[in-house]
Every structure is written in structure tokens, then in C-alpha cells.
Amino acid sequence: MKPRLADAAAERLGTSTDAGAEPITEAEVLRVLARIARTGKPGDRLRAAELLGRHMGMFREQGNDEPGVSLADLILRAGRPETSEEGAT
Questions:
Q1: What is the distance between the alpha carbons of residues 13 and 4, in angstroms, rounded to a whole number?
Q2: Longest Cα pair distance anywhere in the chain, in angstroms?
Q3: pTM of the full predicted structure?
Q4: Domain spans of the chain, in order of start
């Protein structure tokens, strides 16, 4: 990152030594991420899009609504044969 951009970013993030500077808001972060997602380098664009998608809740798993069930448990369940209630007495 260019030195003047790094200084500007540090200032906007509230890490500057200026006591009058206000910290950056959520809306400003989203605006910056959106700008990067449109105009940044390919790797930066991908990461910005990922962060925006995560913020919007786009990457939630739909199939696993059971709390506390791990991926390993789901894999074990998938490998077990189904048991039928009809034949049980």
C-alpha cells in the first residue's frame, strides 16, 4: 500500500494521534468495501466481495439447522444406512 494511502486509512480508522478525529463508521466501511469490490485488484475485489456477502448473510449453511451438530456428525450420519420404522416391532 502506498504510504499516503496507508496514512489516510490509519487516520480514517481512528488510529491517528489526532484527538479530534472520529472513528470510521460501519456505513463508511461498507462503502469502501463496495468501492474495492468494483475497482480494486482481482484479489482485493474477491476479498471485498466476500466480506460484503458475509455482512449481508449470504454465506449461511441452509441444510444444517440443528445447533451443535458438527460437520463430522453429519458425515457419519450420511454414511449410516437408513433404518425403517415399518419393519420394527
A1: 14
A2: 77
A3: 0.47
A4: 3-60
